[in-house]
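Hi R.,

Here are the chain sequences for the assembly we discussed:
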Amino acid sequence: MIRLYDFELSGSCYKVRLLLNILKVSCERIPVDFVGKEHKSERFLKLNPLGEIPVMEDGEVRLRDAQSILVYIARQYDRSSTWFPDAPDSMGRIMQWLSFGGNELMAAAGARLIRILDYPHDLPVLQARAIESFRILDEHLSDREFLELGHPTIGDIACFPYVAMAGEGGIDLKPYANILRWIDRIRQIPGFIPMPGIPAIGAVAA
Amino acid sequence: MIRLYDFELSGSCYKVRLLLNILKVSCERIPVDFVGKEHKSERFLKLNPLGEIPVMEDGEVRLRDAQSILVYIARQYDRSSTWFPDAPDSMGRIMQWLSFGGNELMAAAGARLIRILDYPHDLPVLQARAIESFRILDEHLSDREFLELGHPTIGDIACFPYVAMAGEGGIDLKPYANILRWIDRIRQIPGFIPMPGIPAIGAVAA
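And here is the predicted structure of the full complex:
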């Protein structure tokens, strides 16, 4: 069984739990005391020298980095072959959003960390960066239901958590109607699991 | 033919040119005036709303983000199927280094930009982050010839440029003997193309 080194409130860990639940793959969750900085402990650095969660183990395979774990899980367990399909252009297009989820959107993750766990980052700088990334995402979603290919992929999963939970970082999603509709669509995927801070379905109409 | 929106000195553009040359795929290079901020122009933002180079076009496919372009090119043009192979665990392992190349190692890219193009970033902060990423990379390479799978992959290509050109960002690679040996190995791949700032073969022995 997959072992996931996990912290309940982490959006990056949630990406992995969300895809696993949608694909009906069970996992053993090994809690990491993120608040107590267990992810920087000598023991944990042997699992991931970057000192970050999540880490996944599946038999002999051990992987760090949420986006890398999504790639592995989709290729190993997605029998529909739709979450990270074979075609070179599909992979390239989805990869753009794995990068966006692991880079640009981590500003929103940082803003949330400051607000919910009192992290010592520069809140206005991170909020401004997050807002710029939301503007790009909202524009992209103006004529699309999902980020690429017209259906959900691991690109959506990689971007969803820190966008959907942006309110916890003090960022109002109301200006981004296309993003709010996309959040609604993702909430309706069979196997979706909620997290605190994600807007309720229909928030766009409110 | 592939069209690459390109800037000669960009390490991110070089990643793409390097893989194309190794795979013997020709491309049309469209120069972008990076110094003149053409990548932030209205015209360019229509190609890539993130305002970054490289951008690649291949027929109907347009992609931003060096790592995404590497994924596409490997899947579309690598007849050996070794640069980004099918197996789920291979993809997951390589993806870790696509993320590392697009995240952690961009500190080294930033340090280089400050030094060669006088960018207004915080040099000591970026150098310290780069050094931490080099420490992790050097340790990883202590018992490996390439980053994963025992042979070169797009993971190596994604990480190579900003490590190899770190000297231009004022970072000395001498303490990282495993990295210097890895640079030597990559330089010896048929189709390798040099860039200014990359140490000569044998620098490890110097």
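The radius of gyration of chain A is 16 Å. Chain A has a mean pLDDT of 95.

Let me know if anything looks off.

Best,
T.
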